[in-house]
Amino acid sequence: MKSKNFMKVWKYAFMLTLILAGMAFNGKVVKAADGEIKAVTIKTGKEGLDNSTYTGKLSAVGDDGYVRGSVIKVTTDCSGLLRFHYQGNNSDIVSITVYSDEGLTKDIAYTSLNASSKTEISMGLSISKAGTYYASVRTFEEEDIDFTIAADIYSSDDDSLTEGKSKLVTLLSNKDSNFYKITLKSQGIVKVYTTYANGKKCYADVDIYEAAGGKKKLVSKGESLAEGSVTGLAQGTYYIKLSNGSDSYYSIKYKFTAINDKSGDKKTKAASLKLGTGSKGLILAKDTTSKEDWYKITLNKAQHVTITFTGDVTGDVTLSFYDSENYLFGGLYINEYTAKDSAIPYVGNGNSKKLPKGTYYVKVTKDGSSTSGAYSIKIQ
């Protein structure tokens, strides 16, 4: 009994020595690259690890010393958060050290595990570039240990996004940033959806840059929103920048809606509206506050009308309603918090609430430089 207790104390003392010293294998005991795996790049969260798993044995037979181990070569296609998943065949005390060199002299991560066959133990580390790494699995146990180890990685590389498809990504720190390329074949609105990988609300910056002359030009500053941040964009190539987050996993995707804007850019070129038919308009992120969208409608008789103004916008947008003599009846207002506004313009007493026969004009403007999105006008 005393001998067994002594051995247990000695095992834990030895493991502590490994933790403090980060010592490498004795070259006579463990040869490099007993196995090789390629880390699975996580994109949707549904990827399996079957093709990225190494099965090994730490054999108690023939060891010259109590420390026994195995080395697994690991390759990655990207930088990011690299994770190892270990599972043993019994209650094992093992250590996993990750090295950046084949000689096992440059350790970059270490963990000690009290693992069992019923539990998968994971460890993760940030790597700043794609490449080859080496994971050593060591133990001080006196019996054979069968184990499996697999690896996956959440990318922190710049990449591209496919419209409507979520991608799981990571930021290595709150100073890290990633750019995701998108290409729009027509003008419209882009909604960017960002959450943590588990679907919960996250806090990060989501900005949009335009590709201009080989450089990136900021066109819209935004924030991470599970319900989507809206930006009005012209046809072209853009980059969605994710930044100011933490070393965590994110889900990011975008959706695009084309908008056929037929508004006139001044009163004399106002686009015609039909009674009872809606008309859509687009406010681009790069539009100035002096930009105006004009519409007109002609009433062939005095009648009751209702103006409805709706939108999917970021920022404040104003609709102004005039008669042909520039008399302002009033305004309607929408923003990201108020998606709909309506009014009944009229002339005369409040009982009839009718507009006289004639032509009337609608002007739509953005109230701030960062405002953009799509809107709809309907008069009925």
From TrEMBL:
Superkingdom of the source?
Answer: Bacteria
Leader sequence residues: 1-32
Going by the UniProt record, its keywords in alphabetical order are: Signal
Q: What is this protein called?
A: Pre-peptidase C-terminal domain-containing protein
Give the species: Anaerocolumna jejuensis DSM 15929
